[in-house]
Amino acid sequence: MDVVFGDRDVDYLRRRHQTLSRDPLFAEMQYSEDPAQIAQWAPLAVQGRATGERIAATRHVRGTDVDFGELTRQLTNIITEHGGEALTGREVGTLSRASDGWVITGHDHAGAGFTLRTKRVFVGAGGFALRLLQHAKLPEVRGYAVLPVGAAFYRTDNPQVTSQHDGKMYGQAEIGAPPMSVPHLDKRYVDGKEYLLFGPYATFSTKLLKHGKLSDFFTTLRWHNLHVIAAAGLQNLSLVRYLIGQLAASPEKKFAQLRRFFPKADLADWELLEAGQRAQLVKPDRRRIGVLQQGTELVISADTTVSGLLGASPGASTAVPIMLDLLQRGFPEQWDAWRSVLADAIPGMTTTTWDAATVAESTARTADALHLD
């Protein structure tokens, strides 16, 4: 669901809906400027709002929210049930090439070291991915860098509030703000308990993971990427100003952003929590020297034995297309044989033209798999 306020943003959302609804994938998207109708979709967005203030919203009734943490646990169980091994509670320190493949070293939480040998490696280590690929001396990441950007969210578990909002409601980012700063008010279930979260608010730390070290960022610096970072920073001064403004904002100013969505929000019901760290990717560029890249990039070595995912994903839902890309590019000899098997598991993978019939078939299949009405 999207909700906007004021003449300019209402006009934008109306035109956006008119454009997207022509596409069969978005044909069922609903639009309204009627506060009474919007109050049925998202009561908190309307309660206490000034009479006469323009508001508009779109929603898609078939939208679903997936618990990717639970999904990961289930997939891990499937791996172990079929003879695989999942090693958790370990931190990889180095990745180096050997005559017969790759050597991985690290330690567990107790400090005990471990060594693994393998012919192929995929590095999906979030903020640590670049550092490990640098350790592997992968020429494909020469000049690459990352900039850490953290996030915080307001959270409430007050049942009188959480019971009135069901779903994920997006707004509009401020002018000059990066795409990942789009505010949203979400219903979340954690261990069976209902919460509402609102954010993100930018934070800053030189850690590359939420529970990392302050020295993490500096371990990724090389002579060949310093000028790349500097060039990207100079070309994104509006982003720098936005981040500084976020960091300097008072608690009252931060909470005012939540009240823009939920006018009757009471500060006593909410707590500001540190969320996580994003390792924003910075790439070398022949013309501009360095560019800040939104989203992720899959890097694969020339011999395809090592690959890694760099950058900050807009969400876990991108995992499937990223892995399909990895299988196709990283295993070109096996891809043709795998493709038909994968197509059975992911029917939409081979669909090139989406019309009303294919959309209806896909949504019905999803509803059946998720046991939706």
Order of helices and strands: EHEHHEHEEEEHEHEEEHHHEEEEHHH
* Shape annotation: globular
For the secondary structure, the number of strands is 15
Provide the low-confidence segments as ranges.
none
How many angstroms separate the termini?
A: 19 Å
Q: Kindly state the mean pLDDT as a whole number?
A: 93
Task: Give me the number of helical elements.
Answer: 12
The biggest sheet amounts to: 6 strands, antiparallel
Derived from helix and strand composition plus strand pairing, the structural class reads alpha+beta
* SS strand fraction: 25-35%
Mind telling me the C-alpha Rg? 23 Å
* Spatial strand arrangement across the major sheet: 9-10-11-8-12-13
Helix percent band: 25-40%
SSE blueprint:
Elements: E1 2-5, H1 7-20, E2 30-32, H2 35-41, H3 43-46, E3 55-59, H4 68-81, E4 90-98, E5 101-108, E6 113-118, E7 121-123, H5 129-135, E8 145-156, H6 159-162, E9 168-170, E10 184-190, E11 193-203, H7 223-234, H8 237-248, H9 251-261, E12 271-285, E13 289-293, E14 296-300, E15 306-311, H10 319-330, H11 332-345, H12 356-369
Parallel strand pairs: 7-15
Antiparallel strand pairs: 1-3, 2-3, 4-5, 5-6, 8-11, 8-12, 9-10, 10-11, 12-13, 14-15
